[in-house]
Amino acid sequence: MEDRDVKLIEKILSLKKARNAVILAHNYQLGEVQDIADFVGDSLELSQNAAKTDAEVIVFCGVHFMAETASILCPDKTVLLPDIHAGCPMADMITAERLKEKKKKLPGVTVVCYINSSAEVKAEADVCCTSANAVKVIESLDADEILFVPDQYLGHYISTKTNKKLILWSGFCPTHVRIRSDDIKRLKLEYPHAQVMVHPECRPEVIALANEVLSTGGMVRFARQTETKAIIVGTEVGIIHRLRKENPDKKFISASEQAVCPNMKLITLEKMLWSLEEMAPEVRVPEEIHIRARAAVNRMLKMGGGSSPSAKEQEKCQSMRERQDARGSNENHLSLSG
Fold first, then answer.
1. Cα-flanking dihedrals φ and ψ of residue 210, to 5°?
2. How far apart are alpha carbons 227 and 250 in whole angstroms?
3. Which of 4, 135, 183, 300 is buried most, with the most CB atoms less than 10 Å from its CB?
4. In the chain, count of helices (H) and strands (E)?
5. Fold agreement (3-89+266-287+307-327, 94-173+331-337)
6. ∠ CA 177-162-113 to the nearest 5 degrees?
């Protein structure tokens, strides 16, 4: 590590203590960012961990919708996103206005919204889901027909696990669609004894070649528990850093070096330091959006596992928030939509 990085890290840690802050880093972040974080994980897991801490400030090293989720679950905390331009192309493929228009065309339809979406879109949904709990959430619903937004490939994967009819929004993750079936086939020939794990945001033909289809959190657990010594990893390349760090005796091969999310790489040590110095940029969900989006997230937590805030915790958060405001005056089952 260079002297410059050592000094940067020392300044960040000093300011973190002074601000009573917690640093969260998504599995796809740069290695240097993951290494300095208090928690590394997926977006929901990180927000839930932050809610359990006494920190007053969250430095969220991820993308915008993740910082919004942290604001929804931790309204009593200040949420900082070190680079405000760190967005999510898939989340941008749907807006609350377009979702409202679609709901008018499908009166009474139940809307399930992937957590990888804006707070405004979450507020228009009946319930949220993650890639890990999506099947469980959908199976828990009474409805036989469900509008699933915004990821068509995650939706397609879910459709193979349920008899419910899914109407799919035509969104997708540009990073995961760069992973091709030819990539997997080539690597399986090169590493014949390797297991293949891929993210459910991948194309169906890629999923068909996998031994395991897992969320990023599932990949971390699988890598830790399996006796396999070589694993082909079909998701954003950033997770390889964590997998190798936690499992030095195993070999991890990225399914495609093209599977890079530029937005996830925008946050650096320099930007983290500046963010803590200036207490900006702050991400905060407006109250009217926050209430409805939180309801969709809480329904998910009840259906799909996890713990939603207790009534007492929510009352405490609301009180603190008000004080902050005062101070700051399968194909038959599918159809594509969007």
1. -90, 150
2. 9
3. 300
4. 15, 13
5. yes
6. 55
Domain definitions of the chain by residue range: 3-89+266-287+307-327, 94-173+331-337, 176-260
How confident is the chain (338 residues) per 10-residue block, as mean pLDDT? 83 98 98 97 89 94 97 95 98 98 97 98 98 95 96 98 97 98 98 98 98 97 97 98 98 98 98 98 96 96 60 43 43 61
**Rounded CA separation 209/274 (Å):** 44
d(CA 65, CA 63): 6
d(CA 12, CA 23): 10
Q: What's the CA gap between 113 and 245, in Å, rounded?
A: 33
Token pair, residue 86, equals 């760190």
Q: What is the C-alpha to C-alpha distance for residues 54 and 48, in angstroms, rounded to an integer?
A: 12
Residue 5: per-residue pLDDT? 83
* pTM (whole model) above 0.85: yes
Q: In what order do the strands lie in the sheet with 230-234?
A: 212-213, 195-198, 230-234, 251-254
d(CA 267, CA 281): 12
**pLDDT tens column, 159-216:** 999 999 999 999 999 999 999 999 999 999 999 999 999 999 999 999 999 999 999 9
Collapsing DSSP states into helix, strand and coil, what is residue 58?
strand
CATH for the 94-173+331-337 domain, from 3.30.499.10, 3.40.50.10800, 3.30.750.24, 3.30.1490.190: 3.40.50.10800
CB 77 within 8 A of CB 55: yes
* Rounded distance between C-alpha atoms, residue 3 and residue 304, angstroms: 46
Taking only the tens place, the pLDDT of each residue in 117-154 is 999 999 999 999 999 999 999 999 999 899 999 999 99
The answer to whether 74 touches 58, Cβ cutoff 8 Å, is yes
Per CATH, is 3-89+266-287+307-327 categorized as 3.40.50.10800? yes
For residue 332, the one-letter residue type is: N
Q: What's the confidence (pLDDT) of residue 1?
A: 62
The CATH number that domain 176-260 falls under is 3.40.50.10800
